[in-house]
Specification:
Layout (H helix, E strand, L loop, with lengths): L1 H44 L16 H7 L2 H32 L6 H9 L6 H11 L6 H8 L11 H29 L3 H9 L4 H12 L1 H16 L3 H7 L10 H11 L3 H28 L3
């Protein structure tokens, strides 16, 4: 009797597992078709001279050796590292600060949160054209404001010295809202009782912020930094729409190089090699950053 019940229970569990596999099968199939298989093909293509038309001819590490002597791609790696160094810390601080400010109880708080999120859902093309007008050297709003303040005007993204800074400013505006929401969700999950206990123990506002809020936001900060790093290294749309990698290659990024190499020069093998190198860089930087954040005491 007991053996029959155990067998019936086992069959029921197996049936439930099979139903679970059936439900996840479509997602797994889509993942295999659109992620795993293209990934494997890309790695193989990086060892070929594939020109997007003819069959792939295996050439070993030739494409990789060539990239080390490709000044345009090497410059793009330097550009993207500069962008990451400027963009990620600024976005982290700005989005966290805005989240803290909007987490307070105040009139129209939901309205302000909605307004801050608007840039995240705005069309990239529309955003690019708006910023083209704002940063126009002769008729742009920003230079008109500088003139009114008696300050020297800037060429913004038309000059190599300020082009990357301009890209950082635009990226900050576009990504602030989504990262703010992540921090806002983390702040609202902190129990109010902890702040009440800290206040009873005599902690002032600054002490509660640095000794309670900041440590409890550690997991949210790690997630935001990881996503910011992955997204920053894949910068493309703003560069493509505003600068086309100029002036003088000062805003060229690896993804922009991959696009030009694949679809303008029709060199799929070299573009695949660029993609693999970029992937390895993103993985290495993300791994090291996460390890550092886990070991950091804050």
């Amino acid at each position: 009797m007991l053996k029959a019940k155990a067998e019936s229970k086992r069959k029921k569990q197996v049936g439930q597992q099979n139903i679970g596999y059936l439900f996840i099968a479509p997602a797994v199939i889509v993942f295999l078709i659109f992620t795993v298989i293209p990934f494997c093909v890309e790695i193989y293509a990086s060892f070929t001279n594939y020109n997007m038309v003819n069959r792939m001819e295996f050439v070993g590490f030739t494409q990789y050796w060539y990239l080390f002597n490709n000044s345009f791609f090497v410059k793009s790696l330097g550009n993207i590292l500069l962008f990451v160094v400027m963009y990620v810390p600024l976005m982290l601080v700005c989005s966290f600060t805005v989240a803290v400010l909007l987490n307070r109880k105040m009139p129209l708080a939901k309205f302000y949160r909605t307004v801050m999120y608007f840039p995240a859902i705005t069309s990239g093309v529309a955003t690019a054209y708006v910023w083209m007008w704002l940063m126009n050297p002769s008729k742009g709003l920003f230079n008109n404001i500088l003139i009114m303040l008696g300050l020297p005007i800037s060429q913004w993204y038309f000059e190599s010295e300020t082009a990357m800074i301009s890209i950082v400013l635009i990226s900050l505006w576009g990504g602030l809202g989504s990262n703010m929401l992540i921090f806002l969700a983390g702040l609202q999950n902190i129990p109010a009782e902890l702040y009440e206990a800290a206040t009873i123990d005599g902690a002032n506002g600054m002490q509660r912020f640095f000794r309670l809020t900041v440590p409890l936001m550690r997991n949210s900060a790690q997630f935001v930094v990881t996503m910011l790093l992955i997204g920053a290294f894949q910068l493309f749309d703003i560069v493509y729409l505003l600068t086309n990698g100029g002036p003088m290659g000062s805003t060229a990024t690896p993804v922009y190089c991959i696009y030009i190499t694949a679809f303008n020069e029709f060199n799929g093998g070299l573009a695949s090699a660029m993609s693999v190198i970029l992937m390895l860089i993103i993985m290495a930087v993300t791994f090291l950053t996460r390890k550092f954040l886990k070991e950091a005491d804050f």
